[in-house]
Write a structure and sequence with these properties.
PmbA/TldD fold; 2 domains; alpha+beta; 25 strands; 7-stranded mixed β-sheet; 6-stranded mixed β-sheet; 9 helices
Length: about 475
C-alpha cells in the first residue's frame, strides 16, 4: 500500500519505530520469563481524521494519531495483559514483564524463539489514502451532499454530513513465530436529513464507505447520499403507524444482514461457546436454521469495511462456514478458543486497539443467496411488512432473543409494497427466526460499509449481507393489528 504523505507509518521498512525481529524476540522472552504458555506483541499506529458539516459550514474538523504496544501472556485459561504508549525499549520491557506476572512461579521458556515473516494477501491496496487528500476536497463532498438533500424538497429543513477516515498500521509478533505487518485504511461518509411539515419532524440517513479511496464516490456520489437521506425523511413524514402482531416479513437485501449479525452471529463467536453462555453451545452438527440458510463469515471481500488481510493475533482469516443448509458447522475462533476446541484459528481474533485484548469477532457476516426471484418472494405475501432499513437493536446472547427497530418499512398488500410505516420493531429469537425462512432470494448483497460492532466495550468495523428473505411469521411491535 502507498504510505501516507501526512503520517509516515513507523512499522514499515525504514519506519521510525525501528521494531525488528530482534526486539520482538527479546520482548517475547521477557513475556514468557515467568512460565507463560503463549505470548504475543501487538504494535499499533493509528492516524485518523473527521469532518462535520452543518448549516452550510464546517462545524468541526479533527486529526490525531495514537501509537502503542499491547503485550499478552496466557497461562492456561488465565490472561495477563499490559499496554504502553511509549516504544522506548525499557518501557516495552516493563509492559512485557507486567503481563508475564499472570504466570508467576512457572518455568520460563529457555529455547530460542523462531520468528517467521508472513506474507499477506492484499484486499485493500490503495493508490492514495484519503488522509492524503486535501481537506477542502473532502469538505466539498459534504457540501455537495448537503445541497442535494436541501434541493430534494422544500420540507428538508436541516442537513448534517460527516466524513471519517483513518489508517491503522499494525505489527503482530507471537511466540508461535508469526511476524506480520498490515496497513488498514478505512473511510465512512454519512448524511442525515431532517424534514418538517405541519409540525411533524422526521429524519432520514444514508451513507457508506469501506477500505477504499475517494473513488468510492464514483459509484455512489455525495449527491446520491444526500437525496437518499432526504427521500427517507420524506417517506417517514407520510408514514402510518405500523401494525402489530404475528406477521409475514420480507427483509431487503444488504443491510438487513444486521439482524443476522446481532441475532445469530454473536452467538457463533467461540468465546461464548467456550463459556457455554451461547444458545448455540454444543449444537455443532444440529439443525439450527431453515435448510435454505447458509451463513458464512468472510474477511476476504475486496475493500469491504469488515475485511482484513490478517487478524490482530497474526492469523490469516478464512471464509468460515458457520451454518450450512441449516446445519451448524462451527464457530468463529481466536487463538484461545481454537486451542480449547482443538481446531485451527479462523482469523477472527480482533481488538479495538493496542489497549485491548483480542476477542473472537465477526468480519463480514453474510447469509448466502437462495433459489428465489425477489419479485416472486414479494408476490407471495398476502399481508405483511417489507423491512427496508434497520436502526439499532438488542440481543441476549444466552437465548438469542432480540428486538430491532426499523427505520424504513412498508406494508405489503396482495403482493405489492404500499403504505410506508413508522414505529415498527421486529421481536424474536435468532435460531427460531432462521427456521422461519421460507423463501430466499438470489440477490445477495453486502452492506455499504457503515456498520460498527460493539462487544465487551470494544468497537470494530464490520460488514453484513443477505439476499431478499421471507420470514413466514415474526412478532412485529407496532400499534395495532391493522
Amino acid at each position: 500500500m502507498a504510505q501516507s504523505k501526512l503520517y509516515q507509518a513507523p512499522f514499515g521498512p525504514g519506519g521510525s519505530a525501528g521494531i525488528d525481529d530482534d526486539i520482538c524476540r527479546r520482548l517475547l522472552e521477557v513475556a514468557l520469563s515467568s512460565g507463560g504458555d503463549y505470548a504475543d506483541l501487538f504494535f499499533e499506529y493509528r492516524a485518523a481524521g473527521s469532518l462535520f458539516f452543518e448549516d452550510g459550514i464546517t462545524k468541526s474538523a479533527s486529526r490525531g494519531v495514537s501509537l502503542g504496544l499491547g503485550v499478552r501472556v496466557r497461562k492456561g485459561d488465565a490472561t495477563g495483559y499490559a499496554h504502553v504508549e511509549d516504544l522506548d525499549f525499557e518501557a516495552m520491557r516493563r509492559a512485557a514483564h507486567t503481563a508475564a506476572q499472570i504466570a508467576r512461579a512457572g518455568k520460563p521458556q529457555t529455547s530460542s524463539l523462531p520468528i517467521t515473516r508472513r506474507s499477506l494477501p492484499q484486499r485493500y491496496e490503495l493508490d492514495k489514502l484519503t488522509l492524503d487528500v486535501d481537506g477542502t476536497d473532502k469538505r466539498a463532498l459534504l457540501e455537495r451532499a448537503s445541497q442535494a438533500a436541501l434541493a430534494h424538497d422544500p420540507s428538508i429543513v436541516k442537513v448534517e454530513a460527516t466524513f471519517a477516515e483513518e489508517v491503522r498500521e499494525i505489527l503482530v509478533c507471537t511466540s508461535l513465530g508469526h511476524f506480520c505487518r498490515d496497513s488498514q485504511p478505512l473511510m465512512r461518509f454519512g448524511v442525515r436529513a431532517l424534514a418538517e411539515r405541519n409540525g411533524r419532524r422526521e429524519s432520514g440517513r444514508s451513507g457508506g464507505g469501506g477500505r477504499m479511496t475517494l473513488g468510492y464516490f464514483e459509484g455512489k456520489s455525495p449527491a446520491f447520499h444526500g437525496a437518499e437521506a432526504a427521500r427517507q425523511a420524506l417517506v417517514l413524514l407520510d408514514a402510518r403507524p405500523a401494525p402489530a402482531g404475528q406477521l409475514t416479513v420480507v427483509l431487503a437485501p444488504g443491510d438487513s444482514g444486521i439482524l443476522l449479525h446481532e441475532a445469530v452471529g454473536h452467538g457463533l463467536e467461540a468465546d461464548f461457546n467456550r463459556k457455554k453462555t451461547s444458545n448455540y453451545s454444543g449444537q455443532v452438527g444440529v439443525e439450527v436454521a431453515s435448510p435454505l440458510c447458509t451463513v458464512v463469515d468472510d474477511a476476504t471481500f475486496l475493500q469491504s469495511r469488515g475485511s482484513i488481510n490478517v487478524d490482530d493475533e497474526g492469523n490469516l482469516p478464512e471464509r468460515s462456514v458457520l451454518i450450512e443448509n441449516g446445519i451448524l458447522r462451527g464457530y468463529m475462533h481466536d487463538q484461545h478458543t481454537a486451542g480449547h476446541f482443538k481446531t485451527r484459528p479462523t482469523g477472527n481474533g480482533r481488538r479495538e486497539s493496542f489497549a485491548s485484548v483480542p476477542l473472537p469477532r465477526m468480519t463480514n457476516t453474510v447469509l448466502l443467496a437462495g433459489p428465489h426471484d425477489p419479485e416472486e418472494i414479494m408476490a407471495s405475501v398476502k399481508h405483511g411488512i417489507f423491512a427496508k432499513a434497520f436502526g439499532g437493536g438488542q440481543v441476549d446472547i444466552a437465548n438469542g432473543d432480540f428486538v430491532f427497530s426499523l427505520t424504513e418499512s412498508y406494508l405489503i398488500e396482495d403482493g405489492k409494497v404500499t403504505a410506508p410505516l413508522k414505529g415498527a420493531n421486529l421481536i424474536g429469537n435468532g435460531p427460531e427466526t432462521l427456521r422461519r425462512v421460507v423463501m430466499l432470494g438470489n440477490d445477495v448483497a453486502l452492506s455499504d460499509g457503515s456498520w460498527t460492532c460493539g462487544k465487551d466495550g470494544q468497537s470494530v468495523p464490520v460488514g453484513v449481507g443477505c439476499p431478499t428473505m421471507k420470514l413466514s411469521s415474526i412478532t412485529v411491535g407496532g400499534t395495532d393489528l391493522g
